[in-house]
What we know:
The chain has 9 helices and 19 strands. Strand 9 and strand 10 (about 240-245) form a beta hairpin. It has helices spanning about 5-25, 35-40, 95-105, 120-130, 140-145, 150-170, 180-195, 255-275, 285-295, and strands spanning about 30, 55, 65, 80-85, 110-115, 135, 205-210, 230-235, 240, 240-245, 245-250, 310, 315-320, 335, 340-345, 345-350, 355, 360-365, 375. Helix 3 (about 95-105) crosses helix 4 (about 120-130), helix 6 (about 150-170) crosses helix 7 and helix 8 (about 255-275) packs antiparallel against helix 9. The protein starts with 6 loop residues before the first helix and ends with a strand. By secondary structure, it is an alpha+beta fold. It is elongated, with a radius of gyration of 23 Å. It binds cobalt (II) ion (2 copies). One cobalt (II) ion (CO) binds near residues 234, 245, 247 and 352.
Amino acid sequence: MTTTIKTEVLIKRHEKLAAAMSEAGLDGMVFNPGPSLVYLTGMHFHLSERPVVAAFTPGAEPILVLPELEARKVEGLSYELEAFTYGENPSTWMAAFDKGMQAAKLNGGRVGVEAGCLRVLELRLLEEAVPQAEFIPSEETVAKLRMYKDDDEVAAMRKAVHIAQEALSATLPLIKAGMSERELAAELTLQVLRHHSDPQLPFTPIVSTGPNSANPHAFPSNRPLAAGDLLVIDWGANYGGYFSDITRTFGVGELEEEFVKIHRITQEANAAARALAAPGVTCGEVDRAARKVIEEAGYGEYFTHRTGHGLGMEGHEAPYIRGDSEMPLEAGMTFTIEPGIYLPERGGVRVEDDVVITPERLESLTDLPRELITVG
Length: 376
Ligand code: CO
Ligand code: CO
């Protein structure tokens, strides 16, 4: 998979990272393979047993330590980067890390790391290479940059939403009572790929029916779809490394009255959050707008998660749409609005949209119908 990021965009990101590091009192930051490394270098590496680390220091060119067999990736790069390679024997790793981290002048410095991404493998090599450096969890330093999407990034997300929506539309006519959650998940996955998603999906589609749908993060099981079931489908696609993450809830045949009711309430909660969200409104206010609808309908205790999460190169990233967040929304932020009501042992409903904050308002990237649709 390749993402082409324009050179001027990468250089601008390096400048912004340098400013963010200075503001955070960091002398440098190191990254291993993951979305931030792609975001900053435009290069893709597998997270494997061979350690790969990029080091960024304000005002200096980036350093990359990588296996010799991947050295061609840095040939002809359109921006300055100094690479240090090692061979197939792990005994050669340390020398490359020593040289690379000396070149990055990280010894004695405060060095930011992404605690959720960097592994003990890389950390041990870094600590040995620059024993006087202090490694500090600093994921927010780069998350703050990635949170504001530029037009190209929003365009990629729009594409990822389009692919996912088309894939669902192609799957719906195939749904029949009696087919299992896994069969349906397999059909949907096939359609997502057939509609030209990049192969690395943001997550395995959630297809949950009946009592399983009361678990927001269920894995598809062999349970067959049966009349009277709520059916939650939560899926996404990948376009150029940017994700979509959508949920719609269906009724298999006719539903009992309360299921229809909680679907309507969830849809209203989703609409209330989308109506409120705009530049200057806080993430907490958006969460509370959705929650208020569900609480006032008497189902507050069954809305067990936050209203949404940032979306982009990762399935979950900043900003988080949580009741206690005072972060104001700003143009370029992309996130989900996904209230739900989950009745234990019975069934659940979630309606999830992907949205972007424009300079004036919220725009929903998803435009599939949100109403309860009967399938099977
Ligand atoms: Co989702
Ligand atoms: Co989501």
